[in-house]
Every structure is written in structure tokens, then in C-alpha cells.
Specification:
Length: 206
């Protein structure tokens, strides 16, 4: 990119997760944990008027999906952290996201070691050179150290608090061919998708 040409602004959007049975308790808990550098958070990267995030599912395909900025289903928007300007032009960004979409498959999701915040960290760094703050994922890192004390399978993809839309599952069959020809998208959109499918994230872990 030319030195005199600025890339688009990039934001790390941070959310409090929600529990379907007690919608506000995680938000209230996070107000206390936040002061200690902890919390139960979902996050996504906003750039060029779109937000990209990562969730798990049990089938083949990407776990990366797109939703309306600051309106993630099943989570309460907390704050937008500016990461600065992208090092890449707007027209280069879709290819970067497609590359990460193929790296972050739904079945690779792990609650503690490869979650939505890990994806946001990777995409934010790819676009701006800046990492996500450690506090958004610190509690998940602690969870990995005590996993032996938690229920079996708690870190499996289908336990993801935010699940990728099932429409993303077909990306390898449909989108990869189009990508090779210079078009298409491996990223699913939640807009217009039934929320029972797009947002099975009514769980209380990050």
C-alpha cells in the first residue's frame, strides 16, 4: 500500500456472553471481573462496515462468519477497541479473511486454546500488526490449566458459546472453487439466517 494511502479503520468489538436462562448474570459478573483483567467475552473484528468472528460446529467447513457490526447474536456489546488503520487496502482485505477462514475450521474450535478471541487476535494482527489485549482471553487460558477438573468434552466444537452458522459448512465445496477463480466467499453471513441455526450460543462460557 502506498505511504500516502490509508487503509480502513479496524476495531476489536468485545461482547459479554449471555446465558439463555439468566440473560444478565454474565454481564453483571463481567463488571467485577473486568477490573481484575478477566471476564467471559466474545469478540469480533470490524472493518469496512462488516464484523468477522469465529465459532465452532461439528461438521466440515469454516467456523468464520460475518454479522452486523456490534450486533452479535446471543451476546451483549460491551465496547469497541480501535486497533488503528489496516496495513492493507480495502480490496485486499477479503482475501486475507478468506485465508483465515480456511485456517479456522469449525471443528478446530477449542474453548480454551482456539476460540473467537484467538481468531480476533489473529485477524487484528494480520490487518494492523496489533494484538488483542490479553484480558479478553485470559480466563479461557486459565480454564485450560484446570480442564481436568471440568466436565468431559467442555472444549469440543459443539460446546462453543458462539456457533458458526451451518451455511458456512459448505464453503469448501462451493466457495473454494470460486475463490480460485477470483471470486466468491468462504465466510458465512448471519444476516437473514434463522437465529436458531446462526446463534446456538446460549451457554455461559467464553
Amino acid at each position: 500500500m502506498d505511504a500516502d494511502e490509508d487503509g480502513p479503520a479496524v476495531f476489536l468489538n468485545v461482547y459479554d456472553l449471555q446465558d439463555a436462562n439468566r440473560p444478565e448474570w454474565i454481564t453483571n459478573l463481567n463488571w467485577y471481573l473486568y477490573s481484575m483483567g478477566l471476564g467471559l467475552y466474545h469478540s469480533g473484528i470490524e472493518v469496512d462496515g462488516r464484523e468477522y468472528a469465529f465459532g465452532g460446529h461439528d461438521m466440515e467447513g469454516t467456523g468464520v462468519f460475518e454479522n452486523e457490526p456490534r450486533q452479535a447474536y446471543g451476546a451483549v456489546f460491551r465496547e469497541a477497541l480501535p486497533l488503528g488503520k489496516s496495513k492493507h487496502r480495502s480490496q485486499e482485505i477479503p482475501r486475507i479473511i478468506e485465508e483465515l477462514a480456511m485456517e479456522f475450521s469449525g471443528v478446530s474450535y477449542n474453548l480454551f486454546t482456539r476460540n473467537c478471541n484467538n481468531f480476533s487476535d489473529a485477524l487484528g494482527e494480520r490487518l494492523t500488526g496489533k494484538r488483542a489485549p490479553a484480558w479478553i482471553n485470559r480466563l479461557a487460558s486459565y480454564g485450560e490449566s484446570i480442564k481436568c477438573m471440568l466436565p468431559a468434552g467442555v472444549d469440543s466444537p459443539h460446546m462453543a458459546p458462539v456457533q458458526a452458522p451451518q451455511t458456512s459448512i459448505e464453503y469448501e465445496r462451493v466457495a473454494s472453487e470460486e475463490l480460485n477463480n477470483g471470486g466468491g466467499s468462504a465466510v458465512a453471513r448471519t444476516t437473514g439466517i434463522d437465529h436458531d441455526i446462526a446463534g446456538r450460543q446460549q451457554k455461559s462460557a467464553s
